[in-house]
Design a protein that fits this description.
80 residues; mainly alpha
Length: 80
């Protein structure tokens, strides 16, 4: 009969009495997670967000104007 105390002896228990450590509780040993504040997150993001390349922006602007010119050219060709 089990009384919550445990076995007094291993005799008659069907085991050799060797006690092993239960490794299923290893997850309890994880370090505590240190969450960042909103200010720290904004500061980290500002370090990683790069300014856009001005040459690329200029190219897109010129490309947009070129497309507008081609559309106008097609419209004028249709009119004759």
């Amino acid at each position: 009969m089990y009384n919550g105390i445990g076995l007094q002896t291993a005799r008659g228990s069907g085991t050799n009495g060797y006690v092993q450590r239960n490794l299923s509780f290893v997850h309890l040993l994880k370090p505590k997670v240190d969450y960042k504040t909103e200010e720290e997150i904004r500061r980290f993001e500002s370090e990683y967000i790069k300014a856009p390349n001005q040459e690329i922006l200029e190219h897109h602007r010129k490309r947009k104007i070129e497309v507008q010119c081609l559309e106008l050219e097609e419209k004028l060709e249709k009119k004759g």
